[in-house]
């Protein structure tokens, strides 16, 4: 029975070939190869799996049938962010990352995979310009991991054990970072004031045992940290490093943290040319200055430019490979494994297409639409802005009278995802280059129709 | 004129694409642009004014980032040329990347993930609107539970090594929940396990004890037992190991660990040869992880995105990362991580596009197909081994004469002693024939190592072709060693000087660092003067 099974993905199921190969190795059947697997560990039955669909058309119909139950952010009007963003993805980006050569390459050497090294070196370089830093890694998994790794680096460099988290942070990100650092660093949160770091409180808590200030900008509410230079000065005076978690999408117009004293800058590149993919297309970057003390603490792969035997030819290779866990095992700073290199190539293509003008225009567009959305929603009776900081792409609104969950439920009925509930009466609203003025006006009109002010008055009366 | 009908020569004549492509910054042509950004509506502009001018000085960038300005078609050409200068596994017989299980990634699966119903989906949408994504994830969880024999499965970890980390993080949380976090501070692994097992355990705060193989090349049970104590938090083992040897005493390993109160974590990165044959839970393991991007055929993407399936026993299931997907009748709901969970290990629901690809691959094969894939991978491997060992100078140390599972760690030590040609030099020369070849992981416990893993995907003819090239290079090593020593000869680039890459004075990790170090351009901060010239 098994011998008759021929599958298009498994060429040597062809009976004659299989017989020929078994004969060549002197085996009676494939059973011979499993002599080392003890009988009591053998399954002795077929796996209980659904009936297979070997014909492509049947498989496609089945999978698409399930996926067709999804309604996309094209079908609904989405103001969802909180770590995954709906930015426009240029067609050329999709074209490049779809290429078989990049999609199916893996750990090739600098010779036969020259193009992969070249493209990832360029990604590092384009990010370096955006961030004004000289060293950027080949992407790690996501911005969560990048930040955790950056803080761990700061702990090793300073030999200290406390981290002050001075910004509003996504709870999921804090969860990851806390568990990752559990063995080495203690994480303390310093409450923010009006969405930004409380400089006086932070300064008061800076001691000789603080390894790093963890600053998020834009923060989990989209607030831009306007006193990064002051925070960095205070940190450096205490021998503390500044580790930033960021989204690089605004740096066409915003000052990159390195120019205000950040030592390690980390973040996620999903905003730079990657679709939302249900939150499945993230990649993290870690950027530092070209200082061996920092570079040697970076656990990730770093691709560098090298000369070859042919003058004028660019070669590439791993920088300080012996630093990584591939060589160090348990002496490594962290593990290195398959992470998210293809997304680095995507972000490289994106930045090459956008250029300085595109990134500047995008940054301005995001600032303008964010401000417009803030103004428009703040004008809705019953809504007020969560703080008065400058925001990029995201901001919170306080809702009078109704809970955020009720607002979300009511607007979903109209085909609108108004944002993410981040408190009982607080909604996190996100706008991108995909959110037009008309979209924002529609959200405001729908919220106005809910008559939140009247609801608030009723609530007030009930509790009077 | 007559065209030859005789067979093509083997190894085939090959030449890698060579475009002598500039660095993308060198394509800069002032004023060009690659994509237009949608304009700010006049209504928005009227309402908010000049938002950039209104920024506080501390936030406004004074000099633009020095990104290149390039028209769209030139950007496209640049990256397509770079793609041509990359030997992906869709082009070569990629059995030289042992331990990484390079399978065929079916093209239909790539098409399935490109639909808007997956691509344009946000993880925080109304669960009622993402039932398809939740359902397919839940379905794959159930398939992976059956394949592993485990109770519950999570796809939160965004890679195999992230899955290894998740295993040890769960183990740490388990011991902490029992008040034994301080007592259990050691982890035992083997030298042939992937380096990430040792590294992840170390990052989690454990002292790592490494067990070496016994005289026959099997994981040394006595040495492992000697290392076990009430201090042991876990054993972290791979089976079969990267040598391709299946540890027949694996159940004794697990039982011995359990006897001292330790847990057993199974790195299933090498599971491609045992699907449907034997399962992690059947050997008593508490947690394990699979790589969806290798064992279950999702493409490797030049080094990711990747995805892991973490599978756990009933006792360990509460410690799995979240969010979890729960089936409630015909509906699927999302549960945030519970009290005992290690929490979130990544954004969202993990790399869902690989979840869909892996689901499609399993559904295309079914139970019989999975088992057949493993059996053929093992047949291919043993066939390949018999052919490789016929090449003078090649050997397969440890467990000589035994069958192997899905890969073999070979050695060119004999050839090296006779010719001075190293495994690394052979690898570079193999590229000249259109094949990828990788030496092996550190440490080189096997001298002059190379690891080949043919998987189920390569035909006999392709395996023969690979071996023919390997035999040809070994022949060259004896007869014309200079040809091997001076390789590559027909690649995109020539022999590259890697010494610069280890010297902090000379390494250049970005273009700006290169321009600064070698041409004295710009300051360390790279700031540009207002007129655009380098500061």
Describe the overall structure.
- The complex is a heterodimer of chains A (464) and B (535).
- With 464 residues, chain A is α/β, with parallel strands linked by helices.
- Helices cover 38% and strands 14% of the residues of chain A.
- Chain A is built from 15 helices and 15 strands.
- A 7-stranded mixed beta sheet of chain A has the order 2-8-7-6-5-3-4, sandwiched between helices. In chain A, strands 11-12-15-14 form a 4-stranded antiparallel beta sheet, covered by helices on one side. A two-stranded parallel sheet of chain A has the order 1-13.
- In chain A, helix 9 links the parallel strand 5 and strand 6.
- Chain B has 535 residues and is of the alpha/beta class.
- In chain B, the strands form 3 sheets. Chain B has a 7-stranded mixed beta sheet, sandwiched between helices. In chain B, strands 8-9 form a two-stranded antiparallel ribbon.
- In chain B, strand 8 and strand 9 form a beta hairpin.
- In chain B, helix 5 runs parallel beside helix 10.
- The radius of gyration of chain B is 27 Å and the shape is globular.
- The interface between A and B is large, with 218 and 220 residues.
Which bin fits the share of residues in helices of chain B? Answer: 25-40%
Task: Give the C-alpha Rg of chain B.
Answer: 27 Å
Mind describing the biggest β-sheet of chain A?
A: 7 strands, mixed
Shape of chain B: globular
General form of chain A: globular
Put simply, the count of helices of chain A is 15
What's the helical proportion of residues of chain A?
A: 25-40%
**How much is the average pLDDT of chain A?**
96
Oligomer designation = heterodimer
Based on helices, strands and strand pairing, what is the structural class of chain B?
alpha/beta
Report the structural category of chain A. alpha/beta
Please list the strands of the largest sheet of chain A in the order they lie side by side: 2-8-7-6-5-3-4
Output the radius of gyration of chain A. Answer: 26 Å
Q: In percent terms, what proportion of residues of chain B is strand?
A: 5-15%
Tally of strands of chain B: 11
